[in-house]
Amino acid sequence: MAREVALGVDSSTQSTKVVAVDLATGETVAEGRAAHSGEDTQHPEAWWAALGEATRAALRPDFAVRAIAVGAQQHGLVALDANGTPVIPAPLWNNTASAPDAERLNAAADFPAAVGSRLVASFTITKLAHLARTRPELLATVDAVCLPHDYLTFRLTGRLATDRGEASGSGWWSPAEGRHRRDLLALAVGAETAERLRLPDVLGPDEPAGAVGGEAAGELGLPAGIPVGPGTGDNMAAALGIGAAPGEMVISLGTSGTAFASSAHPTADETGEVAGFADATGRFLPLACMLNCTRVVDTVATLLGIERDAALDRAGAAEPGAGGLLLMPYLAGERTPNLPRATGSVLGLTAASATPEHLVRAALDGVAAGLAYCVEALARLGVRAPAVTLVGGGSQHGAWRQAVADATGLTVSVRGGGEHAARGGAMQAAAIALGEPVDATIGRWRPPVVAETGPRPGMREAFRLDERRGLVERLKGEG
């Protein structure tokens, strides 16, 4: 007898993951994965190829696939010609080339009031402005613009569609007003271009984007005609995957690090440290994001010639404070705090602290302190919680869990299910297949807590949070 499943996709900076969830139980019964380049500019065709590879790896002969939905990295700019072909490789969320364009746009309009977020180089509208400024001849060939998950949904269905969560990362869609702001788009590309560009339809949380077309079905090994969910951004999908309740704080540990919470009300932060996003349930998702998260430890481990898990084991065995070593983790600029031109730095290096254990511990401390900064940025807007749920690859290692607990002073927990962003896509697809609201599906299949870690008394001071804030202010002053 065939097992009915829904497929969920997480197309991230590093890879595409596909999970199959049993429609009867909510259990994840298969997974597939395919690597991306990991670079800050990637060709959308590579994501489609990876989706095919990961989907085929997740399928089993006894599966009856009933629906699919896509979660993906936020913000990247996908510019399509009239044939639906990408005009350029996509600059991603962590590509900071558009930082001057973000500054110009912020000077031209009150973006926090308009779309809930002060612009930084991550936002899609800044990347479009950068294209208009540097390659106007290419902009003239662009017929439509969308974000990464929108492109994959387009390839699946032939329809240019998105959801509130993904749209809220564009910089031209207002979560509070629920509409595209072409007047803001005009600031980036000019009034005439802003009017002619096609933008994705913005769908509700329970509204299908369409059905898998015949060509896409053949390439991915899927049944033609199955429904495709509206999809969403990766953080919104992760919130679905763990069944995040309103007010619940979530920290995602991946290539980027994010802290966010589901909220009934839209937010707007004049400083730009908290983005006023929408979520994938009809509510909102105030979010603070670091560009540099788990890859900081990975980079230091590679430098030292140590495998990732071994490096985390050694970092976890060392005390916070790293023997006086302090690492500022801005290896690729930074978004929170907004330091697009910053670089990483190491302070306090002595003969005693120049050891592999101290170096990997300093990297772990630097990221954990940055996440604590993000939690405090949310608290400024009244977004607080007594505990944190961790998601993302880093949540699986005890060193990350303890470091986040110690730095934030909050108890952290991890929920089962794994690959939470992909699982969130599967929850959305399952809701459509079952004909029920997505809130009902995720509430019924909320995974249980499988690990819990509390902060250790007196450890928070070792992260030197006040000293780090002083260094951040100095960096801001240097421009």
UniProtKB/TrEMBL annotation:
Carbohydrate kinase FGGY C-terminal domain span: 249-431
Reactions it catalyzes: D-xylulose + ATP = D-xylulose 5-phosphate + ADP + H(+)
BP GO terms, sorted: D-xylose metabolic process; xylulose metabolic process
Keyword Kinase (UniProt): yes
Top enzyme class: transferase
A molecular function (GO) term: ATP binding
Pfam families: FGGY_C, FGGY_N
Alphabetic keyword roster: ATP-binding, Carbohydrate metabolism, Kinase, Nucleotide-binding, Transferase, Xylose metabolism
SUPFAM superfamilies per the UniProt record, alphabetical: Actin-like ATPase domain (SSF53067)
Occurrences of domain Carbohydrate kinase FGGY N-terminal (ranges): 6-241
Source domain of life: Bacteria
Transmembrane found in the keyword field: no
Entry's family note: Belongs to the FGGY kinase family.
Name the record gives this protein: Xylulose kinase
Organism, as annotated: uncultured Thermomicrobiales bacterium
